[in-house]
Design goal:
It contains nine helices and no strands. It is mainly α. It folds into two domains: 1-35; 41-143, Arc Repressor Mutant, subunit A, CATH 1.10.10. It starts with a helix and ends with a helix.
Length: 144
């Protein structure tokens, strides 16, 4: 066994896998999950378009046109590979961007300015969704 580095490496790998798969630990659930499939090109293009146009009011048709795909195919791609709809994914990106902006805001910036910058047009809906997602109001995050 000592003369064969390949055999020793294989044995070490097998023992490690055996320990990881049989002895319970805090990552056991993660190891049991299947790896997510990589998203198809049109879904990646749509996500890139969303990131680039996060502050603009964009529709599903705009997203589909930008990635040169049909609306139905885009919806199916997001449902299959992101487990959501394209517009819900865009909303997720926007709320995350607003959260980051609020946490890193310089003095003088307002919640309204940040919300508008991140593509939210209705302040009441923005505040409600933000509180639901992060457990505090946007103004509380801004004050920290």
């Amino acid at each position: 066994m000592r003369q064969s580095p390949l055999a020793l490496s294989n044995l070490t790998g097998a023992i490690t896998r055996l320990l990881l798969e049989t002895v319970p630990h805090r990552f056991s659930d993660e190891l049991g999950r299947a790896a997510p499939s990589p998203a198809p090109r049109h879904v990646k293009r749509a996500i890139d378009f969303m990131h680039a146009n996060i502050s603009r009011p964009i529709s599903l048709e705009d997203i589909a046109a930008a990635c040169h795909f049909g609306v139905r195919s885009l919806k199916k791609g997001f449902r299959d590979f992101r487990m959501t709809t394209p517009m819900a994914y865009l909303q997720h990106l926007r709320i995350e961007a607003a959260h980051q902006e609020l946490e890193q805001a310089s003095p003088g910036l307002t919640v309204t300015a940040i919300a508008l910058k991140c593509g939210f047009g209705h302040m009441g809906r923005f505040a409600a969704e933000y509180k639901l997602r992060f457990g505090q109001s946007p103004s509380q995050t801004l004050l920290r």
